[in-house]
Amino acid sequence: MGPSRPLAAVLALALAGPAAAGCHHDDTAAAQASAVALVAQVPLTRAGFPPDAAAAKAQLARLKVEWGRNWQTYKREDFGRYWSDETDAVGGRNGCDTRDDVLRRDLKELRVGDRNPCVVLSGVLHDPYTGKELPYTYRRASQIQTDHVVALGAAWRGGAYAWTPQRRLEYANDLDVLLAVDKQTNQDKGSRTADKWRPPRRAYWCEYARRYTGIKTEYGLSVTAPEKLALQDMLASCTA
């Protein structure tokens, strides 16, 4: 999953500064430049994700259809209490916080730290769910949250209840599962499935259903009958 150990070593040197043992100013500058280059090289999505409309329709047809299970046992902490880089999911073990990875991928007009290229200092999100333009500035209150497209509670009901803790941690930090979105819209969505919630912006229905179906397929999650119908309807909005 990318050059995790070299990246971690280079980031450590870059953050240590000139006082690091045996490290001169030129060495530190070179380490910082190397860190920027390595962070830029690490993929922030799987090849071929999200699937195109035809592939998503074929994947949806193969998903297991059943009612959700064990909803009453779901606890958020079963997916890990905090963001974790210690997984083999997309973006894992790259030395950067999961949320920063999402921001670096989804924001435009991006500015990252000179010493730590993982940290996003500022940018603008074109929210896929609403179309709003949302500014972001490091350490200031933001209207941006990180959404699990197939919510953790929905994943639990679709089969994640039977996973190992590490598999659930991987899911919670998989960049293909995550999107930077409008905070209020994310809160309105909660853990609702596709039959109970759709993005307010209809123009995003096609990509939302493609992502949603791709996630369900990648992780072997089931769908309910109403959920499948809703995804079929959204995929029907895709243009050739």
From TrEMBL:
InterPro entries: GmrSD_C. It comes from the Bacteria. PROSITE patterns: PROKAR_LIPOPROTEIN. Keywords: Endonuclease, Hydrolase, Nuclease, Signal. Pfam families: GmrSD_C (PF07510). One of its GO terms (molecular function) is endonuclease activity. PANTHER family: AMP-DEPENDENT SYNTHETASE_LIGASE DOMAIN-CONTAINING PROTEIN-RELATED, SECRETED PROTEIN. Residues 1-21 form the signal peptide. The keyword Chaperone does not apply. This is HNH endonuclease. Residues 97-231 form the GmrSD restriction endonucleases C-terminal domain.
